[in-house]
Every structure is written in C-alpha cells, then in structure tokens.
Amino acid sequence: MPDTTPVPLGRGVETNDHAERALALVQDQPALAASLAAPLTTSRDPLTRTIALWALGRASYEHGEMREARRLLGRAVREARSLGRTDLEGSIRSSLAIVLVEAGATTAALDELDAAEPLLDGAALGRLLNQRTLVLSHLGRHRDALVAAERAEPHLRAGGDDLGLARLLINRSLGHLALGELPAAERDLMACRVLAEALGQHLISAAAGHNLGVVSARRGDVPGALAWFDEARRRYGELGDPGRVSAVLDADLAEALLIGALSNDAVLVSRRAVVATSAGGNVVHEAEARVVLARALLARGEAGEARREAQQAVRLLKRSRRGPWATWAGHVAMQASALAFDQGESFPAGAVARAVALADDLDAHHWRREALQARTFAGRLALERGQVDVARKQLAIAATARRNGPASARAGAWHATALLRLADGDRRGARRAIAAGLTVVERHRATLGATELRARSAAHGSQLARLGLRLAVDDGRPLAVLEWADRWRATSLGVPPVRPPEDPMLAAALAELRDLTSRRRRALAGGQPVDELDRAAARLERVVVARHRLGGSRHGDDERRLTSAELRRHLDGAVLVSFVELDGALVAVTVTDRHAALHSIGPIAGLVIEVRYLRAAIRRVAARSTDPDRASPLAAGLSAAAGRLDALLMGPLGLAPEGPLVIVPSGSLSGLPWSALPSLTLRPFSVAPSAALWAQRVAAGPSTRGRVGLVAGPDLPGAQREVMAITRMYAGATALTGSSATAAKTLALFESSDLVHVAAHGSFRADSPLFSSLRAVDGPLTVYDLEQLRRVPATVVLSACDAATAAALAGDELLGTSAALLGLGVSSIVASVGLVPDEATARFMVELHGGLVAGLPVAEALAAARRRVLRSDDPGDCAAAALFLCLGSGRS
C-alpha cells in the first residue's frame, strides 16, 4: 500500500487552530479529522475555509470516496489561488494529483503536479516529488518513479522532514517491488516502520507492514504474507479502518491467496475489493482488483467470467492510460480465451502473434516476472498450433527464470524448459526438466506448516506432473506412470503438519465455535431464529482459518521417494492398483511383488456418472433400511449399479479373484464406496491416497492395540449401546459417554490410546473441508482441533457419517477428517463415505471389533465383518457394508 499523505502547510502559513488540527489528524484519524473540518468549510475566514476543505477532501480520500475528494480538493485549490497563496495552492494540488490518479485521470494528475512544482521549494518540494513517485508507480513507469524518489530525498533530509522521508520510503518501495527488487523494497519498508513508529505515525507503520506482506507474497512465502496482512488489518482497525486501505489490503491479500493456490478464497476477497473500490470511484485499485479476480477465476476454471473481468480491467486501465497494467490484464484475458478454447470455444486468429506481442510489451515495461509467464504461455500456444520456431524462441526466454523467484514461477520456467526440450526431440532432457520443476514445488511445500496451504500448493506442479505422466503413458512404462503420479498426489499427507506453539486465539475461537454450534442446534429445536448465530459462526470461522494459516513453517528436507523395489517388498503378496486421470481418460497401474502392468480404463466422464448412480443407490437403501419391503427393491438397484461400475473399473485389470489389494484412487474416484463393488466385497483391501503414504504406514510396522478408547457422541440413537458393547470386548478399555464425551476429553483419549472408536454424528463440509467434524457433547470436533494432537493412535474407527469423505484438490490432495488423521500418522482408519444407517452400523461395528479382538489386521477384519453381516440379506447391513472402507495401510 502506498502512502499518499499530501504536503502539509509550509512554513509561515497561519491558520485557524481547528483547521490545522484537522489537517494534522487526517491520515491517522480521518473520521475525527472530517468531523473537525466539516463545520469550518463555511467559515468566513478564507484561509480557515481553504484548510478545512483540504482536510475534508483528504479525509474523503482516506475513506475511499474519490468523487467527493476530487470535488472538495478542487474547491480548495480555487480558494488558495484566490488568496494568492501559491505555496498552499501547490500543496493542495499535490493532494489532488493522488486523488486524480486513483480515479483514473492520470493525465490530469500529472498536470496538477507539473503546475504545483514551480510553486514549492525545500521540504515541500520534496514531498511533491514523493507524490510524483507514487503517481509514476501507478502508471507503471517504475524507473521514472525511482528517479523522482532520488530527487525528493535530499530536499526532505535537508529540511529535517522525517515524516516526509518515512512516506518517501514506503512509496519508493513500490517501484522496487514492481521491478522485482525485493531486498531493496524490504530495506525501505523496514526503515519506514522504524521511522514511523518513532514519529508516532501508526498508519504509515501499518502500511509499511502491509507492503512487507506483499514482499513476502512475491517471494512465495504465503504464511509470512498472511501474518503481515493480519497485523496490518488489526492495526488499520485500531485506526478506524479507513475504507481505502482496507480495499487495497483485500486486493493484496487476494494476490497472496492466489500465490498459495487458494483460488476460492482469492475469488471471495478480490470480489470484496472490487465492490469497495468501485463504489468509491477508485479506478486504479478497482482495475488491479479485477485483474486478481480474473486470475483467481481462471485458476478455478471459470473461463468466461475470468475473461469478462480481465477485459473490464483492460478498459479501466486504458482509460487511465496505465499501459503496462493494461498489457498484463490483456494477457490474463488471453489466458482465459485459451481456457475457453480448451473447453470448446473457437480461438481467435493471430492468437500466437498477440501472445508474443503482450510478452514483449510486458518486458518493455520492466514487468520481468509477468513477461516470463506470458512467454511460457505464448510458447505453449505456438506449439499447439505447430509454430515450432516461435515456440522455441519464447520458451528459451521463459526458461531463464528457473533459479529465481517464487516456486510457482520457477516451476513454470521448468515447464517451459521441458516443452523446449520436447520440441527439440529430447525426451530424456524433458523428463529431467519435469523432475527438477516438481522438486521446486516439493521443496516449497515442505516449508509450509498449514495443511491447507500444503495441500493446495500441489496446483503449482499440475502442468509438470501431467506432462510427465503423458510421456510415461506414451512410452507404455507402468512403473514410470506410477512414479510420476505418486510424486504429485497426496504428498502433503506424507509429513504431518507443523504443530505451532499454543495459540490462545485459535483455541478460544474453536471453543466459541463449538458453543455457537450447540446453541444453534438448540435454537432450531425450539423454533427460534438463528441468523445472528450463523453470522457470528461465520465470523469465527474466518478467525480460525486465518490463525491456522499463520501456522509455523518448516525447514523441510526432501522426502526419500519410494522405489519400486521397496514397494514390491512391502506388498508381500498383495496387489497395488493405482488409478490415474490424464487428458479426460482413466488409466491404471497394477503392481505385484513380481511384475507391473498398465491398463486403459476409458473416459472418466462416464465413470463419474456411474459413481454418482452408485452413491445415490446406497443412499436410498440406507434411508429406508428400517422398512425392508421398500428397501429390498432398492437393494436390487444397488446391486445392478455396483455390478456395472465393477465391470468398468476392475474388469479391465484382470485381477485374480482372491488376495489383498491396495487401491490408490484418482481424485474423481475418491468418494467411491469401493466395498460395494462385487469383486471387492468379500476380499480384504485398503484405500490409500498414494502408494508412498501406504508404504510409509506399512514400514512403521504393526502396532499394539493395548490401550483402547471409545467415545459415544450425543443425539445418536444406539451410540451408547454400541460403545458399551464394544467396550466389553476389550479389557481395560476407556469409554466416554454422556456428558463426559466432550471435545477436550476426546482429544485427550486420542493422545493416550492405541485404538480409538468414535460413534458420533459426522459431517463433511464441502465448502471448507477443514471444518468437517465429529460431534462431541459440547459441539463439533473439527479437523482444526484434530491437528493440535501431539500423538495419534495407530488405528481409528469412525462409526459416523461421511467421515471418509474428502475434498479432492489438484494433485489428488485430500482434505477431510480421515485424510487429516492419515496425515497426522494414523496407520489404519475405518470410516464411511456416506450417510450410514444407525442400527445396521452398530451391528457392523461389533462384527468388525470381533475380528480385531481375534488379531486380524484391519483390512481383513473389515472384510470378515462384511462377509458375516451380508449373510442376513438385510438392506441396512448391505448399505453399511458398502459404505465403510479401510483407509491407510490396513495392516495395523
């Protein structure tokens, strides 16, 4: 964020004390300044009136009201001119210039500065040159902006104007930032903070911290950026939360979220920035926010809306004569058009030439990082259209960014290198480039503490991984396909998230959220309104998310990758089946301890439809499980749907009918009730997010089930009977029931037990998977709570609805309750991928524990339970047997 405080009164200017005080308060307390200045704008004293108009105009600007600020400052200029006070006129023109540039009138802004410069000298001239620095930065003339800053600095130092110097430092940092000179930007901002704090200029200090967040984001340090932004928002709030700075903060926050691959959040925050800046007439920041919004929409695959936002930004930027920004927005619009082309639209003629021209323009304006991204895009576009020479030139330039910049940019440069080598027929070199790019992403991910940031960071490697997979599939090499798939998928679960130091704010927010949820449930039961409780819960959820993302970072070493020899040794007679999606089709790799094979399954779209049919069929049977006359015909439909999908998915694999399996699904298959498939119903199998994670859990070895803990959640018919029946099966088991089944006691039980069984209501939050939960007596026990665990059991049984359901992100990264427990180190989990019938589930759980007590591994105990309950032909038993899966190793 820039500092835009205009020049104060020069020496020798005499004014009414109240007007002077209003002017002095504008930046730190704009609301108070406005209340003091407003009555004085009708003063009979022309000097008082002029100063009051100036102060009120500046206060309007701070509140984001550009139109009103422009009107008031225009009046103040005319009043000063009529007084013959050229020094005062020059200072007010300097203020007006900033309003004009942010309103999009850049030519008029430069005219104001040109008119004001001859009227000022000394420190006042230094401040005006500081304003010129800011205006030129907004225009994308960053080298010129730094020249203006060099001219300003000696005037400010000679005049002893420390406040003006602090403002210059923050504005000069913008030029360094735009040119990618991050160390220089950071030095200026740190110096600014020290100086501003010494002067008691808290808003300037907060703005410098805000910009340090931008520096962190440009480096790819998303947690660091979020921490700076969090501090800036807090301090802005303490200073009255001026509308202008909050909108700019939202736009910069959206940029950081986008760098962290948090595109959904980036869309929400950038939309908020667009609304705020548009309402206030702040064309400069509205256009920038629209560009970020377009990029976030692009990341979500929403080509049409992304293109509309980018084109609107282009119009605003051209109208403001902000050529460099308009070029960048044009590039984003072209990317959206390319995505629309992939989705079936026609692509305009001359697209390659236009893409190259945009990259050249960005280079000409010193937007180096953006230009390199544009050249990678132009090179890919040229390759697709057979213009190999053009592609080779663009990709060669883009490849120069492999060593510097944030992880996303370096991964993109390695992608360009791989494409360039492929264009030259060097497939081995292309594979090396892909591997190097994925290593960049892996090392970046290893530094992130928060689970969500780590999971979503896989998006940075998407294009690289797809290219590596495509080469391996084309070569017909099954183990290479498995290797590339496993390097990309679910790797964030391989190392537990960083557990940050105790965060009282996070703990308090989670406890309050539990209380609110319980109150909401009681209010609904009593027919009372819940709107206010919902709003309070939404606010608390935002606090939880923000605090969690600030979680610690790590100094991550590369994980040692799984070799084919190790995998085969761990299989020990089992068969691993890894499903991989590529270019709209599904392939599978099967691996035994002796051989590997690659299988073509077919188009993924039809399979996804069949998965939906199967899930719906199970849901209908489960809902009517207590009425056999209605459920039995539905069970026949379930059997038919399961048979069709089994033939499509498992039929092409040619597996032996018996023996244990390990299934690694692709993202589209992550919610599949695998137990319903006829070829799997009676055999032991486990489902793992990746081959590497499965092998990692197996390598940990079998664990004792000596300490057993059980929990019966509230409002679940039969939960207490289920838990007490299972408790009697284990000597010395600990059971939490009734009022003792609180979130805190449940977490403590997890930390002290080897096997934990939870019978409770479960919910999956598709909109925010880390708020997926198990219901304790005092409210929801969320993934955020589970991630505070210092120790986890080897085996967890979740007798709850949807506890195995997860959101599948890029790279088949999973977010949900069971996924979180796997990531924390749990070896085996039994959980459901849907809504389970209560009575049948209780029977099924007793059968499962019968096998565990007998010493069977988890996957075998689950298969044995399925065999026993399905003898009854009860529709409820059929649904329960279909929905519960063994996740993880299956051997603990």
Task: Walk me through what this model shows.
62% of the residues lie in helices and 8% in strands. The chain is built from 39 helices and 16 strands. The strands form four sheets. A six-stranded mixed beta sheet has the order 7-6-8-12-15-16, with helices on both faces. A hairpin with a 2-residue loop joins strand 1 (575-582) and strand 2 (585-591). Helix 5 (86-102) packs antiparallel against helix 6 (106-116), helix 8 packs antiparallel against helix 9 and helix 37 packs across helix 39. Residues 5-15 and 554-558 have low confidence and may be disordered.
Q: How would you sum up the major sheet?
A: 6 strands, mixed
Our count of helices gives: 39
**How many distinct beta strands?**
16
- Strand proportion, as a percent range, falls in 5-15%
Short description:
By secondary structure, the chain is of the alpha/beta class. It is globular and about 100 Å long.
Notable characteristics:
single chain, 892 residues, alpha/beta, five-stranded mixed sheet, 39 helices
Helix and strand topology:
Elements: H1 17-25, H2 30-37, H3 46-62, H4 66-83, H5 86-102, H6 106-116, H7 122-138, H8 142-158, H9 162-178, H10 182-199, H11 202-219, H12 222-238, H13 243-259, H14 263-279, H15 283-299, H16 303-319, H17 323-342, H18 351-364, H19 368-384, H20 388-398, H21 407-423, H22 427-446, H23 451-456, H24 462-475, H25 478-488, H26 504-525, H27 531-549, H28 564-571, E1 575-582, E2 585-591, E3 596-603, H29 604-623, H30 628-649, E4 661-664, H31 678-681, E5 685-687, H32 691-699, E6 708-712, H33 719-727, E7 734-736, H34 743-752, E8 755-759, E9 762-763, E10 773-776, E11 779-782, H35 783-786, E12 795-799, E13 807-808, E14 814-815, H36 817-824, E15 828-832, H37 838-853, H38 858-869, H39 875-883, E16 884-888
Parallel strand pairs: 1-4, 4-5, 6-7, 6-8, 8-12, 12-15
Antiparallel strand pairs: 1-2, 2-3, 9-10, 10-11, 13-14, 15-16
